[in-house]
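Quick sanity check, Polysaccharide biosynthesis protein:
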Amino acid sequence: MTSYKSARLYIIGAGFAGQTLAREIKAKEIFGEVVAFLDDDPAKIGHSIEGVPVLGPIKDVARLLRMNPADEAIIAIPSASREYLRELYQILKKAGFEKIRILPGISQIIEGDAHLIQTRSIDPQDLLGRTPVAIGLKESLSYLRGKRVLVTGAGGSIGSELCRQLLSGGAQRLYLLGHGENSIYQIDRELRLLQEEGVGEKATIVPIIGDLKDETYVDYIIGKLKVDVIFHAAAYKHVPMMEENPVAAIENNVFGTENLVKAARKYAVKRFVLISTDKAVDPVSVYGASKFLCEQLVLSASQEGGSHFMVVRFGNVLGSRGSIMPLFQKQIEKGGPVTVTHPEARRWFMTIPEACSLVLKAGGVGENGKLYLLDMGEPVKIRELAEQMIRFYGFEPDREIKIEYIGLRPGERLDERLWSEEEIPVETEYPRIRRVERKEAPLVDLPKLLEGLRPICRFDPSQANQYRDKVLLRRLLHDFIPTVIIPKDEHNN
C-alpha cells in the first residue's frame, strides 16, 4: 500500500486551484509528491509550473501514465460541469487510478483559496444531477459580518454544510446547536481544523448541546447568546419512521420550532430562516404536516414586526444522512439488490452545498414574511438514479446488480410538489431562488390546532388520557389539514 509520503500525485487542472494545491503539498511534504499537472490547455501543455510539468491532453492520461507513473489523481477544476466531471472520472478510472479525489464545488471556493484539507474522495453525488449554480459566498454572506449566528441541527447534513460555508461569512461567533453529542463534536472538530488550515475566517466557534423541546432552555440560550441570526435546520425528517412515531415528530419539529420562534421574537433576533421541505406542500405524512405547521409558525411570527422571519423550501438533497444515496451505496457494496419504492417514483434532487449556498443567499436578500423556493430543475426518477449509481461502481443494472421494487412506504407518494395550487412561484433577480405568493391564506386555524396537539405531546394532568395518543394526534392533523392520510389500521380505532 502506498504511504501518504511516497504517493505520486497527478493534479487534474493547472489553473489557480491546482497550483494552490501543488504549493501546499510541496510545503507539507508528508502528503506525497505532485509529479505532474494534467490539463487540456495547449498554452500550458509542455511547460512547467514551479518545476512541475504540465502534461496533456487529459484524454491521453493512460499513455502519459506509462511514461510518468502516478498513484492518485486530484481533480482541481471547481468550475467543471457535472457532464465534464462524469467524462473525466471515466477517463481516470480506465487509466487505472484507484484513488481519485476532488475539490469542493465552485460555490464553496470561488472567492477563496483551494486547500488540500477540502479534498475528498469522489463519490456519486459529484457526478449526478445538474451543475450547481455558482454563488459568491463572501458577497452573499456580507450581511453576517460581525454578527452572532446560530445554526440549529448543526450536526446534520444540511446544518453542518451551512456551518462550513458560514466560515466564509465573517461572523463574529458561530453557534453550533444540536442535541446529538457526537455529531456536534464532529462538526466542531472539522470547522476548527479547517480554520487551522486557512479555510474561511476566524469566527469564534461555540458548540452547544441542547434540546429545542425544552422551552426554558431555548429561551435562556437565545437570550444569553444575544443571537443576531438563526438558521433553523433541526428536525426529525425520516418519513416512514415519523409515521411510526407521529407524536415525536410533532413534539420535536412543531413545538421545538414554536419555542425557538418565541425566543427569537422576545430577544429581537434580526433574521430567522427556516429550512423547509417539499413534503410540507399539501402534506400527506405526519412529517410533512409538521413542516407545514413550522412554515405557518414562522410566517405568522413575521407579522409582529421588528425581525425578518422567512422560510426557504426545497426538495431532496443528494447524499444527506439517511437518504437513498447512502442506502443504495451500501446495497451495491453487498451485491444488491438495490431497492426502489416504485418504477415511476420521482423526486427533485440538489447537492447539499448548492442548497446551502442558496439558503444563505436567500437569508440575506429575503423579505420578512416571505417563503422562498429553490429551483430544483427537473425531477428525477429514483429508478434512473439507482441505475446511474450502479454504473458508477462499475456494474450493469439488472444484470450484475438487481433493482427490486418494494412499493411506496407509509407517508410517501409517487411525486412531490414544490408549491400548492394556492401558491404562485415568482422569479426573483437571484438565480434559482423564487418567491412564493399566495392566492389566499391557509385556512388552518393554527392556534386552535396547536392547542389540541399540546396535551398529546406535553403531559397535562387535566388531560392525562390524551398524552402520547398517536391516533388522536393523526385525526387532529387530518381534521385541520385534510390531505394528511390516516392509516387503514387507525380508521376503526
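Posting the structure with no commentary besides this: The radius of gyration is 24 Å.
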